[in-house]
Amino acid sequence: MRTPRLFDLLSFFSTALDIVTPALAGHHARVAWLSLRMAEKLGYDRRTRTRLLTAAILHDIGTVPMKTETRDLVFEINEGPHCRAGWAFCKTAGLPRTICNMVLHHHTPWNAARHDDDARLGNLIHLADRLDILLRAQKTEGFAAEVERLCRQREKFAPRYLEALHALAGDREITEQSGRTQSMLRHLGEIAPQEGLSPQKLLKVCGLFSQIIDSKSPFTATHSSGVAHTARALFRRSGLADATELSAIFVAGLLHDIGKLAVPSDILEKPAALSPDEFDIIKRHAEVGLQLLGGVPGFACIRNWGGLHHERPDGSGYPLGLSGRSFPLPARIMAVADVFTALTEDRPYREGMPVGEALEIMRDMARRDALDRDMVSLLADDVERINQARLRGQGKAAENFQQLRVLCRKPGKAEPIWAASVHVCDESKTCDRNVI
């Protein structure tokens, strides 16, 4: 695995966030581009621009657990809660304080932001965000006209930022580029730092996004962490992996379900068995995951190991129907880790199965070539130690979510602002989401 640049990973995340709210596709990239263009006019140094880029691409991550509607983002009805949720995600992941606070303040008006350095930078993202929303409106009058409209809102935006934006409006190259998302991304890629992320930073950023994935539904609140720890422990037990491959399969486990961001919440949280049509929709998450992971330079093994976790040795899996040698061993390990975690973890609609009962189900699947026989046997041979690794990983993830809940509370608010409703599964029906 070649470690990607921070920008490559952020671009991947922005694409993934876009599929949560398709009506705003490209929004995160365009806000980042507009923010960086203004920062260039303002003469900000490289470090500030890099942090601004990170915060701008991640500015709406709080909308995933909030289930914020597109209209809320457009009309700023619900700006406070999703800003605070996004700040909590970044803070829990250990991102720099400046980035966390810019996300927190990306809807803070200038008259409230002017006395705080991070809030001032958040106000720059706020200006870029509002301009992009206006430009996307059906009755937009064009770049220059919308800039003039924003420049009249001096109580909301810093005068220096409005001046920088006004200067952009007079640049023909910039106004032409403003309507082309891919062109914007190319520009950002050219000015972004070229060095790859350190392994520690890679895990930190991927850990952040695994939390975002799992927060999509309370049914799977710590699932990605459980799969990552199980897959790494099982791969290590096989004796077939070096340190780099162990790190790679851990990252693949954290991101294996990223395609679920494209699945409607009402299907993920349906309190009964899924219909055939709903099951087809949820199965698409594997294909979407392959597409998303395949867009990150250096992530070929992450794509194949994480994105193929629903393939089966007998060729009955999805999305590609792989079998035999075309189904790589690390992906087989991931499939075993995914099923083991899904069966043994607690979910709101049922308690986790005892390890022995889960192994019996998996041995039966192995006999039918629905799971790799050797990997199921290897799991059974060391199941206590591997299960302890899963429990520790999911325990830490649960602690992180508890911290998120605390951070998301406003003073005097008893419940987290982004807490999702929890349904009890109808036990008279088969919960096929157990191993989805």
Our measurement of the CA-to-CA distance between the termini, rounded to an integer number of angstroms, reads 27 Å
CATH superfamily of the largest domain: Hypothetical protein af1432
Tally of helical runs: 23
Query: Which percent bin holds the helix content?
Result: 55-70%
Structure summary, number of beta strands = 0
CATH topology of the largest domain: Hypothetical protein af1432
Largest sheet: none
On the 0 to 100 scale, the average pLDDT is: 85
How many domains make up the 3D coordinates?
A: 2
Q: Would you tell me the structural class of the helices and strands?
A: mainly alpha
Q: What is the overall silhouette?
A: elongated
Order of SSEs = HHHHHHHHHHHHHHHHHHHHHHH
CATH architecture of the largest domain: Orthogonal Bundle
Determine Rg (CA atoms, Å). 23 Å
Organism: Desulfovibrio porci
Protein name: HD domain-containing protein
Domain HD-GYP: 198-395
Describe the structure.
Pfam families: HD (PF01966), HD_5 (PF13487). This is HD domain-containing protein. InterPro entries: HD/PDEase_dom, HD_domain, HD_GYP_dom. The radius of gyration is 23 Å and the shape is elongated. The protein is built from 23 helices and no strands. Helices cover 63% and strands 0% of the residues. The protein has 2 domains: 186 residues, Hypothetical protein af1432; 237 residues, Orthogonal Bundle (Hypothetical protein af1432). α2 crosses α11, α6 packs antiparallel against α7 and α15 packs antiparallel against α23. The two termini are 27 Å apart. It is mainly alpha-helical.
